[in-house]
């Protein structure tokens, strides 16, 4: 059932603009304080949180192509923040892990990431952010399920 009072186009525009502004603010602060961008930060976090992480795992998590992830991982590896090792069961694939420098950088950047997000969302009451987070999680799950179904 469609709600006639909902302007779905406006909702889309607001979601995109909020994402862009949050992304840019956090990216700017991470670059200024830690010398890495938000994309690198996110990839380091995924690698850190996923045992035997592969490029394909990052691509699926983030929703971008394997080629784009592979190029980004190449840059992270060149910076000395992660290493690739042969996958124990699949010779066509590599397993990613953080270097000690990558782990140190990620640990140092996490509080900055959280602080910038908190500062940028402070004007919104916590209860509203909680409801928004739940709604977005439901929407994300539906979109990801829709994608898995081949659409």
From TrEMBL:
Gene3D superfamilies in alphabetical order: Winged helix-like DNA-binding domain superfamily/Winged helix DNA-binding domain
Domain of life: Bacteria
Coiled coil regions, renumbered to chain: none
GO MF term (any one): DNA-binding transcription factor activity
A Pfam match: MarR
Entry's Gene Ontology BP terms: response to stress
InterPro entries: HTH_MarR-typ, MarR/SlyA-like, WH-like_DNA-bd_sf, WH_DNA-bd_sf
Segments forming domain HTH marR-type: 8-148
Name by which UniProt lists this protein: Transcriptional regulator
Native species: Microbispora bryophytorum
């Amino acid at each position: 059932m469609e709600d006639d009072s909902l302007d779905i186009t406006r909702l889309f525009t607001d979601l995109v603009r909020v994402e862009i502004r949050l992304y840019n603010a956090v990216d700017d602060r991470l670059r200024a304080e830690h010398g890495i961008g938000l994309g690198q930060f996110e990839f380091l976090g995924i690698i850190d949180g996923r045992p035997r992480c592969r490029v394909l795992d990052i691509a699926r998590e983030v929703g971008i192509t394997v080629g784009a992830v592979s190029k980004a991982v190449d840059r992270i590896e060149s910076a000395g923040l992660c290493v690739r090792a042969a996958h124990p069961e699949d010779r066509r694939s590599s397993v990613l892990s953080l270097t000690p420098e990558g782990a140190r950088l990620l640990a140092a950047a996490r509080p900055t990431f959280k602080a910038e997000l908190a500062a940028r969302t402070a004007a919104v009451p916590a209860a509203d952010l909680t409801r928004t987070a739940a709604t977005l999680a439901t929407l994300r799950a539906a979109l990801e399920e829709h994608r898995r179904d081949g659409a």
